[in-house]
């Protein structure tokens, strides 16, 4: 089932959106996944979820194939109160830095965890590169 929450304070930034969502949860963990990560696949999400169920770390985080931290990010319930207290438009960046030693990184293929596209120009470049890859695969 899905519960739709209205964030009447969306102008307060990403942290407020996280706070609203976390406040409504009654779960043991939460996965935060931004909408502008086009390389993330359902297999990536499943892999991160499986690792989260077997690791005691407070944070389970997707990473590039070289190990650079990215998305998605799973936070265990012990961190919910800190997530609710977030302010500004930086999301959970500060909390992720503070809890880096209690974070387990899950390597995902290539740059799936890092492909964060924020502007129309970035999306155009990504689409163009993707189209070239698809064309080269179909030509062979």
Task: Report what the structure shows.
By secondary structure, the protein is of the alpha+beta class. It contains 5 helices and 4 strands; from the N terminus they run αβαββααβα. β2 and β3 (69-76) form a beta hairpin. The N and C termini lie far apart (43 Å).
User: C-alpha Rg, in Å?
Assistant: 17 Å
Q: Count the strands?
A: 4
Following the backbone from N to C, one meets helices and strands in this order, namely HEHEEHHEH
The residue fraction in helices comes out at: 25-40%
Unreliable stretches? none
Broad structural category: alpha+beta
Tell me, rounded to a whole number, the average pLDDT: 92
N/C terminus separation:
43 Å
List keywords for this structure.
globular, alpha+beta, 4-stranded mixed sheet, 39% helix, 140 residues
Overview in brief:
The chain is an alpha+beta fold. The protein has helices spanning 14-23, 42-54, 80-84, 93-98, 120-139; strands at 29-32, 59-63, 69-76, 103-107.
Secondary structure layout:
Layout: H1 14-23, E1 29-32, H2 42-54, E2 59-63, E3 69-76, H3 80-84, H4 93-98, E4 103-107, H5 120-139
Parallel strand pairs: 2-4
Antiparallel strand pairs: 1-3, 2-3
């Amino acid at each position: 089932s899905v519960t739709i929450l209205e964030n009447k304070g969306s102008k307060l930034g990403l942290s407020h959106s996280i706070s609203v969502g976390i406040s409504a949860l009654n779960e043991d963990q939460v996965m935060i996944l931004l909408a502008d990560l086009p390389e993330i696949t359902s297999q990536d999400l499943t892999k991160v979820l499986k690792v989260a169920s077997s690791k005691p770390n407070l944070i389970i985080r997707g990473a590039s194939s070289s190990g650079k931290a990215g998305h998605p990010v799973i936070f265990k319930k012990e961190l919910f109160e800190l997530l609710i207290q977030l302010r500004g438009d930086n999301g959970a960046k500060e909390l992720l830095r503070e809890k880096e030693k209690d974070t387990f990184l899950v390597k995902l293929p290539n740059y799936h965890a890092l492909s964060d596209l924020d502007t129309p120009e970035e999306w155009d470049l990504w689409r163009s590169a993707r189209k070239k890859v698809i064309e080269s695969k179909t030509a062979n």
